[in-house]
């Protein structure tokens, strides 16, 4: 009986191991998200993926796999496949090596998966393939420097004459209105006299016979 009580006491005093908290992974694309690529080019800047836990602490030795679309816009990794796998470093980063893009224009997504022991996470990274890397610019017409001052001077001259004509018309109208209110009308200047033609009495002289 004493031995059984001692055994029970030892079992009671043994520490009970607490269940380990499940790790939660988070994926973030540090560089290369939403980039527009030139058709047929190789990625100039690497795609950098960061794996952290729920507190933001970097997760080392996590497995990261990337998957490009099987058809349509996309490309292949350095291994010649549409899938690549890597391991995160001490900073929780996985640098994706250069990707060879195809020549099909449009938007597509890279599927990114991360795993460590029983923890898993996934996300989609948006990418684009477009002409000239999406940097086409629309040219805007710029007036010639030599013609711009002349055009401004001509416009200024026309504006000045329009203002003068408007002032003269306004003055004439005001004068007519003032004359009508006072009841006096300024007479028009007299017309010059018409020319008069005068014929004198004819004179006939007869000499001696």
Descriptive report:
The model is unreliable at 133-151 and 176-185 (pLDDT under 50). It is elongated, with a radius of gyration of 50 Å. A hairpin with a 2-residue loop joins β9 and β10. The longest helix is centred in the last third of the chain and has 36 residues, at 147-182. It has a 5-stranded mixed beta sheet with strand order 2-10-9-4-6, with no helix packed on it. It has a 3-stranded antiparallel beta sheet with strand order 1-3-7, with no helix packed on it. The chain has 209 residues and is of the alpha+beta class. It has a domain at 22-134: Immunoglobulin-like, CATH 2.60.40. It is built from 2 helices and 10 strands, in the order αββββββββββα. It has helices at 2-13, 147-182, and strands at residues 26-31, 36-37, 47-52, 63-67, 75-76, 83-87, 93-96, 100-101, 106-116, 119-129.
Topology:
Layout lengths: L1 H12 L12 E6 L4 E2 L9 E6 L10 E5 L7 E2 L6 E5 L5 E4 L3 E2 L4 E11 L2 E11 L17 H36 L27
Parallel strand pairs: 2-10
Antiparallel strand pairs: 1-3, 3-7, 4-6, 4-9, 5-8, 9-10
Summarize the structure.
The chain has 209 residues and is α+β, with helices and mostly antiparallel strands. It is 23% helix and 26% strand.
């Amino acid at each position: 009986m004493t031995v059984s009580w001692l055994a029970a006491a030892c079992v009671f005093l043994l520490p009970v191991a607490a269940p380990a908290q499940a790790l939660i992974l988070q994926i973030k694309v540090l560089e290369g998200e939403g980039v527009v690529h030139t058709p047929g080019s190789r990625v100039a800047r690497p795609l950098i993926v960061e794996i952290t836990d729920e507190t933001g602490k970097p997760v080392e030795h996590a497995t990261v796999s990337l998957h490009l679309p099987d058809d349509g816009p996309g490309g292949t990794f350095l291994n010649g496949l549409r899938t690549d796998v890597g391991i995160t470093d001490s900073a929780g980063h996985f640098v994706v090596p250069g990707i060879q893009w195809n020549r099909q224009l449009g938007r597509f997504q890279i599927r990114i998966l991360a795993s460590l022991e029983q923890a898993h996470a996934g996300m989609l990274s948006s990418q684009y393939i477009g002409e000239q890397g999406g940097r086409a610019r629309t040219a805007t017409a710029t007036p010639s420097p030599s013609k711009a001052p002349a055009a401004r001077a001509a416009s200024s001259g026309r504006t000045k004459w329009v203002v003068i004509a408007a002032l003269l018309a306004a003055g004439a109208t005001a004068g007519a209105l003032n004359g009508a209110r006072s009841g006096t009308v300024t007479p028009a200047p007299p017309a010059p006299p018409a020319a008069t033609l005068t014929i004198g009495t004819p004179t006939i002289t007869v000499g001696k016979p």
